[in-house]
Amino acid sequence: MPIPDSPLLSLTGIRKVFPGCIANDAIDLDVQPGEIHALLGENGAGKSTLVKIIYGVLRPDQGDIHWNGDLVQIANPAQAREFGIGMVFQHFSLFEALTTLENVALALPREDHDKLRARLVETADAYGLALQPDRHVHELSMGERQRIEIVRCLLQDPQLLILDEPTSVLTPQETETLFETLRKLAAERRAILYISHKLEEVRSLCDKATILRNGRRVDDCIPSAETARSLAEKMIGKRVESVRKRATTQQGNIGLQVSSLTTHSHQPHGMDLSDIDFAVRGGEILGIAGIAGNGQIELMDALSGETGAPLGGTIEILGTDATHLNPNERRDLGAVFVPEERIGQAAVADMTLVENSFLTASARMKFSPNGLIDWNAVGSFADNIVRDFDVRTTGVSALASSLSGGNLQKFIVGREMLQEPQLLIVSQPTWGVDAGAAAAIHEEIQRLVSAGAAVLVISQDLDEIFLLSDRIAVISQGTLSSATPANDVTPEDIGLLMGVRHTQQEKTKYAAA
Questions:
Q1: What pLDDT digit, counting tens, does each position of 198-232 carry?
Q2: How far apart are CA 500 and CA 26, in angstroms?
Q3: How does strand 273-281 pair with strand 423-427?
Q4: Rg of the chain, C-alpha, whole Å
Q5: What is the mean pLDDT of each run of 10 residues along the chain (513 residues)?
Q6: Strand 254-263 versus strand 9-18 pairing type
Q7: Is 242 exposed, middle or buried (0-12, 13-18, 19+ CB in 10 A)?
Q8: How many CB atoms lie within 10 A of CB 154?
Q9: Are 305 and 325 in contact (CB under 8 A)?
Q10: Which residues, including other chains, have CB under 8 Å from residue 256's CB and lie 6 or more apart?
Q11: Hey, what domains does the chain have and what are their CATH numbers?
Q12: 192 by DSSP, 3-state: which?
């Protein structure tokens, strides 16, 4: 019998404690050379803390790290890279005003630019990650930006590559290209530690999975021998019911009507919107798909009123012209908004959950007879959000910054949906949320629609778009395709539309098709 490989990376008894929280508790993990190893768990399970320890961002309180059989301490990311550990974070660390080559050069020891250019092109081509060294990052799609991050890691010759939610900004076609690259790396005996909430991807790509729950390792399995549901149940520790798409119901009046919307982006290197037209009726979900950076943020800001009146066009909310109304006035009409950016836009980091619950729901809160805020009512509302949306927190007096990203997302979505709006506009509703929480959010969205609300969902997750939407449109380069019934298109059709600028002529063609 062949002798099994010694682990490339071996963690033993890793423990990390933060005030009021045991993030990692006696975790053991072995990663073999040439293995694509998934690290799975619900929000707050300890995945991010563990990979930050591996990459030297955090130091463990207890436990040992062995690298190639040697006991090591990883003091910082620079030392991790010296060992041969690379990491691509979910949120890219690129300077948009610099070129691809300049961004790569910043992360590497000083080297002649011509030699570095040649190495960059050779490495990118070898792994099917085509890059143009002299293009500025602000001109690139999210998929192209991710390629820069991966190639930048590969130029450091890593033996272990850590990827955090790597396909969250990719089209189906770009995802398949990434998988081909990862399989090539594994064939070279490099190891991949892969974090994802997309369980079907994990099943098709990964050789092994380690499951974390509440900071502890609870299981190891072969993903291909599991179903997405069984993986989710291992993560959560209880049965997960599949979300079924609701039956189409009788549609009501128009909840949101957007006509010829044209804006100038307020984002650095953002995307202007041009001639956007669509409508959403009560009892209907319109899904807007697209790759990040194609105008989603600008569309959300225009609809919520955060950037003021647009350059051109009109926005009607529940029959009222809201084009020149501010965000609170739009909410007073019966609309609620869930933006993509959690901290700073949807929530204030150093405010408590009680205070954050009041931020957007003040008009629906009870006031005392003297006109002061009834904080008992606000506290009760915050308690309801935490209970109904299973927000894992030490209590409603906890700061928003103390929650994991997924738990904060559940709180923000719950805050808006418990106001029982007539119009919900939500961007990336389950971004970074585990399978169980995503299912709960999807159920609540469908419940709201079944009660007659109009819902606009902006999402990069095509599975989510197809699960929820009655009709689907695609945003690309600041333009929007005509909306098509979800049953009439495939994910591949939508993926192809993601790179097209939708002129009026093309919109007519799509509508006719």
A1: 888 999 999 999 999 989 999 999 999 999 889 98
A2: 49
A3: unpaired
A4: 24
A5: 71 92 94 96 87 95 96 94 88 85 89 91 85 86 80 91 81 80 93 91 96 94 93 84 68 93 82 95 95 87 92 96 95 93 88 92 64 81 92 90 84 94 94 79 92 94 91 94 93 81 53 41
A6: unpaired
A7: exposed
A8: 21
A9: yes
A10: 278, 279, 280, 303, 315, 316, 317, 318, 335, 423, 425, 454, 456
A11: 9-236 (3.40.50.300), 243-334+422-513 (3.40.50.300), 344-420 (no CATH)
A12: strand
User: Tokens 């602000």 identify what position?
Assistant: 138
C-alpha to C-alpha distances, 212 to 24, 50, 58, 221, nearest whole angstrom: 9, 10, 18, 12
Answer yes or no: are the C-beta atoms of 399 and 348 closer than 8 Å.
no
φ, ψ dihedrals at 213, nearest 5° = -145, 125
The secondary structure of 476-490 as a DSSP string is ETTEEPPPEEGGG--
> What's the pLDDT score for residue 504?
52
Contact 387, 38 (CB under 8 A): no
Q: Quickly tell me which residue has 């890793």 as its tokens.
A: 14
Burial 312-351 (b: 16+ CB within 10 A, else e): ebebbbbeeebbebebeebbebbbbbbbbebeebbbeeee
Phi, psi of 343 (to 5 degrees): -90, 130
In 351-404, where does DSSP find H-type helix? 353-361, 375-388
Whole-number Å distance between alpha carbons of 304 and 458: 13
- The pLDDT score that the predictor gives to residue 480 is 95
How far the first Cα of the chain sits from its last, in Å, is 59
The neighbouring-strand residues paired with 261 are 276
CB-facing half-sphere around the CA of 16: CA atoms within 13 A: 24
Q: How many residues does the chain have?
A: 513
The structure's pTM equals 0.72
Q: Which of 442, 426, 425 is nearest to 434 (CA)?
A: 442
Q: Considering only CA atoms, which of 91, 21, 75, 15 is closest in space to residue 50? A: 15
Residues in contact with 392: Cβ distance below 8 Å, sequence separation at least 6, in sequence order = 43, 44, 403, 404, 407
In the sheet that 254-263 helps form, which strands lie side by side, from edge to edge? 273-281, 254-263, 312-317, 320-321
Under DSSP, the state recorded for 366 is -
CB 495 within 8 A of CB 176: no
d(CA 153, CA 174): 19
Q: Are 28 and 39 in contact (CB under 8 A)?
A: no
Q: Which two tokens stand for residue 94?
A: 């690129």
